[in-house]
Amino acid sequence: MATKKTVRAAAKPAKSKTKQATSSKTSSKAGSKACAKTAAAAVSFKPSDRIQRQKNVAWRLIDGEAVIITPSDSTMHSLNETGTRIWELLGQNQTVAQVAERIREEFDVTPEVAQKDTLWFIQCLSKKGLVSKG
After folding, report:
1. 6 lies in some domain
2. Domain assignment present for 4
């Protein structure tokens, strides 16, 4: 039987040379607070939308986790396992629904949880200027 994994993707600020940010835990409450602090206007996403990563965003995989630099303020964000997987899938020209389905399969969660958490995380990435509708 597959082990259940936490699905809520989270971007936690990492230390940066240009801006010192406090780390947040990857729980849904901490992740929500981190997402809510961003100033950019929210864009609404639907399951049928294709999302693309911004081309000017620098990122790398370090020890299996994505580290992304927000271009507007040079803040580094370290993603948890789920966030990293969503980030990788967004580079494959898939719809939100397709990404959520892959998350459901790989993390053994219900379709509702996968859809909700994928949309929430994409919304957070959008607020930080890291993704847009494709």
Report:
1. no
2. no
